[in-house]
Amino acid sequence: MQGLIWGKDANYFRANKDNGHTNVLQMLKSLTVKDLPADLTIMHTASVQLGHNRYTHIGKLPPKEWSELLLASRFVLGIGQPAYGPTALEALRHGCMFINPVYDSPVPARMGVPFKSQHEYLRGMETGSEGEVGRAYVCNYRQGDVDALHQCIAKAVQGTGLAPWLPPPYTRDGFRSRFGEVIRGFVKAASASMSTTSTF
Q1: Which of 152, 167, 78, 82 is nearest to 121 (CA)?
Q2: Which of 19, 88, 140, 159 could form a disulfide with 119 if both were Cys (CB 3.0 to 4.6 A apart)?
Q3: pTM of the model
């Protein structure tokens, strides 16, 4: 019975770098007093002291060991940063629920697009963008809300666990389909440009 905290940089555990409103260390320490399963261990990779035997520091792992750890875990807990990293999708691919923090106010992210959560695509899955299957794999919680986080963890550890799964756009067929659409768009635009040029 184990879960993982996503955050390799120790600074992520002290406060969210972008919105600065959440003391992540304090939130995680508060979580230990909640009525979670007695045998639940929560592991993390960052070199921080969480001060409770429920938490285990595992350090950085080679890809094969990381994959085995994900396969043996019930959830991956996001703490706010980094936004849109690959670990959230790796979690689903290995049968882990991704517990996704939602910000009180959007934070600036890549290409000037404001993010309302650590992983925007997965945030929408809980409300049904991928149907009933997707809803089982993501639990959104308001960043800093220990009670909401506890409910997500309780949901993740109940039952027999989840099977490995990826949302359709991230499968091989989904990627090929999207790539094909991009190429067809370029070909169509190039054809239109050549046709316009030839009229002069």
Answers
A1: 167
A2: 88
A3: 0.82
Contact between 61 and 45 (Cβ < 8 Å): yes
Neighbours of 22 (CB within 10 A): 20
* Residue that is written with structure tokens 């001060």 in the block: 51
Distance CA 84, CA 181 (A): 23
Question: In terms of C-beta density within 10 A (0-12 exposed, 13-18 middle, 19 or more buried), how is residue 183 classed?
Answer: exposed
Q: How many CA atoms lie within 13 A of 4 on its CB side?
A: 30
Give just the sign of the alpha carbon dihedral 171, 172, 175, 181. Answer: negative
pLDDT tens by residue, 131-163:
667 789 999 999 889 899 999 999 999 888 899
Pairing of strands 138-142, 41-44: unpaired
What would you measure as the largest C-alpha separation in the chain, in angstroms? 78
Quote the CA–CA distance of 4 and 91 in Å, as a whole number. Answer: 10
Helix axes 24-31, 146-157, angle to 10 degrees: 50
Which whole number is the average pLDDT over 72-90?
A: 90
